[in-house]
Amino acid sequence: MARDIPTEPEAVQKPKRVPPKAWKPGQSGNPAGTSKTPPEVRAFLREHSLIAAQVLVEVAQHGEEKNRVAAAKTLLDFSVSKPKEESDTNSATVVIEALAAALTGKT
């Protein structure tokens, strides 16, 4: 007795759902750019950011070499804007070299 066996189970053949507000190509899903981080989490992080910065400074001054570099880079990333032009790159390099010299005691 031969039975017709479907090639795909019916459970797999679900219709495709399109979100009610599908974005067009190139359109942002978050046009306002607001964070989806809950306000209480942002408040907690703001409250403790000074402590985190102090820890980074402590590590940059007294930590192991690899950790000192990482801490200094993190401090720079949050305190100095990233260069937009090649001329800005030279000034950022000077700042980084000065900080590296200060951290290693080579002035």
List the topology elements.
Layout: H1 39-62, H2 65-79, H3 86-104
Helix pairs in contact: 1-2, 2-3
Q: How many beta-strand segments?
A: 0
State the helical fraction: 40-55%
Task: Assign the structural class, choosing from mainly alpha, mainly beta, alpha/beta, alpha+beta, or little secondary structure.
Answer: mainly alpha
Span between termini? 91 Å
Outline, from the CA principal axes? elongated
- The total of helices stands at 3
Oligomeric composition of the shown chains: single chain
Q: Report low-confidence residues grouped into runs of 5 or more.
A: none
Mean of pLDDT: 75
Sequence of secondary-structure elements: HHH
**Beta-strand residue fraction:** under 5%
Written description of the protein model:
The protein is an all-alpha fold and 107 residues long. The protein has a domain at 40-104. The chain is 54% helix and 0% strand. The protein has helices spanning 39-62, 65-79, 86-104. Helix 2 packs across helix 3. The protein is elongated. The mean pLDDT is 75.
Short description:
This protein is mainly α and 107 residues long.
